[in-house]
């Protein structure tokens, strides 16, 4: 079922997707207020949240 | 092509969920309004994508209605309200933000499990996103519960309406046009009335803090 053209196309698309996602995350973190020491738990909670939501959505939407 | 469209709808659903969490975690009122506008834009994109894919023209109308109401009119009303109430303060939350986020994760797991059997009954393209819509409704509830300021509660209410709209389009290709028009009008009128309430609350208590309303109790 996996045609070679599709597989060849998938690799750059994946790289592009990761680049867009990473740039977006970096942008959000830089604009979301000054990093203060008592805000660190929030950033950690946010990171944990993103990871868990990623897994859950992956399972829900059935990749 | 269908695979791509359903992937795009899934992407918009995931963005909606992330924006709900961002609303839950945001402290500043102005950013809350911006996030709400972004949520509206996502909703319009996913609805018009669904309309294009299923070739149901009435979904285009409801996408247009959503655009006018939730991307233009209601954010404009909220901005005007903010200017006239002259609020600059941060919204305070009853629980601290990490705990709220962890509670949100629990709600998301609950909603996904709850929606799984329901969505397997549906025949729609986007049935998988029903769980996300339910999770967004519950997250908006959580936002209304944990916020103490009236403006944040109103934005939570509007976000809940967004999520319900998304649930309707994802499970059953949208409600009948009459119902949708009625709901849109209700939300607009509700927004105006809640704005008037905010002025009244501030006049009475010199603050928009809901906790002050507890003084109204009879001894």
Please render the helix and strand layout as text.
The complex is a heterodimer of chains A (63) and B (219).
Chain A: H1 4-31, H2 40-60
Chain B: H1 2-25, H2 29-54, H3 57-85, H4 97-121, H5 130-146, H6 150-172, H7 177-205
Helix pairs in contact in B: 1-2, 1-5, 2-3, 2-6, 3-7, 4-5, 5-6, 6-7
Describe this structure in words.
The complex is a heterodimer of chains A (63) and B (219). Chain A is mostly helical and 63 residues long. Chain A has two domains: 32 residues; 28 residues. Chain A is 78% helix and 0% strand. Chain B has one domain. Chain B is globular, with a radius of gyration of 18 Å. Chain B contains seven helices and no strands. Chains A and B meet through helix 2 of A and helix 1 and helix 4 of B.
Helix content of chain B: over 70%
Count of strand segments of chain B: 0
Name the largest protein-protein interface in this structure.
A-B, 16 and 21 residues
What oligomeric state do these chains adopt?
heterodimer
Q: Which structural class do you get from the secondary structure elements of chain B?
A: mainly alpha
